[in-house]
């Protein structure tokens, strides 16, 4: 499992790209790839939990979504997470 952490600014480009990004995340959630996703309470960023084994697969998932290259979106970190509960 992987944690993808994003930081945001309030650029119009980010806000315009967000609906398509959320649609993608919803489809990935239905497929079991994205476990959870959502913005931080102050909308300064977001956290996405991705259920993939390999970092290369996470990178491919990110490369497939133009939102991650949109002005106002910064990937702060991608970290492997090994939960023991859940």
Briefly characterize the structure.
Belongs to the YciI family. This protein has two helices and four strands; from the N terminus they run βαββαβ.
Architecture overview:
- The protein is of the alpha+beta class.
- The chain has a single domain (about 1-80), classed as Dimeric alpha+beta barrel (Alpha-Beta Plaits, 2-Layer Sandwich).
- The protein has helices at about 10-30, 55-65; strands at about 1-10, 35-40, 45-50, 75-80.
- The radius of gyration is 12 Å and the shape is globular.
- The protein starts with a strand and ends in a 6-residue tail after the last strand.
- The relative contact order is 0.33.
User: What coarse outline follows from CA principal-axis ratios?
Assistant: globular
Which sequence of strands runs across the widest sheet?
2-3-1-4
CATH class: Alpha Beta
**CATH fold-level assignment:** Alpha-Beta Plaits
Number of domains: 1
Specify the CATH homologous superfamily.
Dimeric alpha+beta barrel
What is the C-alpha radius of gyration, as a whole number of Å? 12 Å
Tally of contiguous helical segments: 2
Number of strands: 4
Proportion of beta-strand residues: 25-35%
